Amino acid sequence: MFKGIVFDLDGTLIDSPLCFKAIRRELDIPDGEYILEYLDTLPFGPRTEKYQKLQEIEIQAARQAIPFSGALKLLHDLRERDIRVGIFTRNCRVATQYVIESFGMDIDMTITREDAPAKPNPTGLKRFLARWCLEKHELLFVGDFRFDIECGMNAGVQTALFTNSKKGLESLNPDHIISNYENFWECLLSKHQVLLSTV
Question: Which helix (H) or strand (E) holds 71?
Fold first, then answer.
């Protein structure tokens, strides 16, 4: 039984207009480079300037974001089941908090890139485990990108890939595949016949 579920934010709980290709172009980052990892290689001055610009882009995207169908209902359902809910994102704290407040998300704990090393580093997930006093098998991490699945694997917790009904992502080898939030529990049960508490 999962006692805690942690979600990625962009592309997992919310559909936002963040376009990583456009961000690379805006910040003069070479194609193929991961944004945060590249920025961290820059000298202090340029790094600070580009991170500030990145935050502005993320805040603007947060203002245009909408939750995926069924996401808010699922968060409410988890609260009813007494399952702790967290967000672990590579996004900035300001944009993340804006989304949480805008949609009234009831979140127990949030970790952004200002709070812990960015995924796939597992430090953030380990903090959820420690804060919530959970064993690894009691935590599920839900995300839409390979960094999310790798992060969960690195932390030793179960992973769920949110596909939003898209095909071709199963090669990431998550423990579970979530095609949509309306069928969240059915998707978990369909791969591993785990008995989940409905209390």
Answer: helix 71-80
Q: For 59-79, give one letter per residue: b (16+ CB within 10 A) or e.
A: bebbeebebbeebbebbeebe
Can you tell me the distance from the alpha carbon of 49 to that of 14, in angstroms, rounded to the nearest whole number? 27
Using pLDDT thresholds of 50, 70 and 90, give the confidence band for residue 170: low
> Please, are residues 176 and 160 in contact by the beta-carbon 8 Å criterion?
yes
What SS3 class is residue 87? strand
* Of residues 64 and 188, more confidently modeled: 64
Q: Which fold has domain 4-15+66-191?
A: Rossmann fold (3.40.50)
Going from N- to C-terminal start, the domains of the chain cover: 4-15+66-191, 20-64
CATH of span 20-64: 1.10.260
